[in-house]
Amino acid sequence: MNLVIAVKRFWLAFALLLVLGGLSARVLHAAAAARQQVATTTSIQFSPAQDRYPRGTRITLIGTVRDCYGNGLGGKVVEFRESSSQGQRRLPDGYTDGSGRAYCPYTVPTDPNKDNVCIQARFTGDGTYYSSGSSWRRIPIGL
Questions:
Q1: In sequence order, which residues have a C-beta less than 8 Å from that of residue 71 and are 6 or more positions away?
Q2: 117-131 burial, b for 16+ CB within 10 Å, e for fewer?
Q3: Nearest one of 117, 121, 120, 119 to 140, comparing CA atoms
Q4: Residue 41: strand, helix, or coil
Q5: Secondary-structure breakdown of the chain: helix, strand, coil percentages, each rounded to the nearest 5
Q6: Cα within 13 Å of Cα(120), Cβ side
Q7: Quick check: 23 pLDDT over 50?
Q8: What pLDDT does residue 50 have?
């Protein structure tokens, strides 16, 4: 009789551990999801700011990543992309500083067939923030 009671208690304790283990896994998953925020904006700027950029001009692309409260996010990877009539290409990545700005050196194309050039900055996301991308911004090429 004592063996039967011991076996019943063992299986009851085992079932209770399974239920509690499943609940704790769901609670931990929900807590991790609650900590994840949204990086609401990634913007792109050109420096120096000009009305038009002559071909061959070296400029700096600046991608800024901000959280949902408008605070710059430091230590984040920003992808820069170029799009033109000749297709898309990925430019070097930048890493955001304490104000959320990432920098990428860029030379305005010298090829006269490459005149409608647009640039995008994109934050790829991480374990804390979701990804976000800027809209494509056209580089005004000419004198």
A1: 100
A2: bebbbbbbeeeebee
A3: 117
A4: strand
A5: 25, 40, 35
A6: 15
A7: no
A8: 94
